[in-house]
Amino acid sequence: MGRVLMGIGSSLTFVYCLYLARKNFEQDRFPVYVGLTNFMGMIGALAAQTPLEIWLQHASWQQIYLCLFNGTILLTPVLFFVAQPWKERPEIELETQSLKDDFLAIWEARKFFVFWIIVALSMVSPLLAIPEMWGDLYLETLYEYSYIESSLILSGFFIGVASGSLTLGYLSSKTPLRALILILLFGEIAFLGSFLAPFITSVPFMAFSAWGIGFCASGMLLFFSLLEKTFSYNPLAIPIFNMAIMIGSSAFQPLIGGLLDHLSPSMGLLYALQISLCLLPLFLGLTSFLWVDRT
Question: Which of 133, 153, 164, 147 is nearest to 194 (CA)?
Answer without folding.
Answer: 153
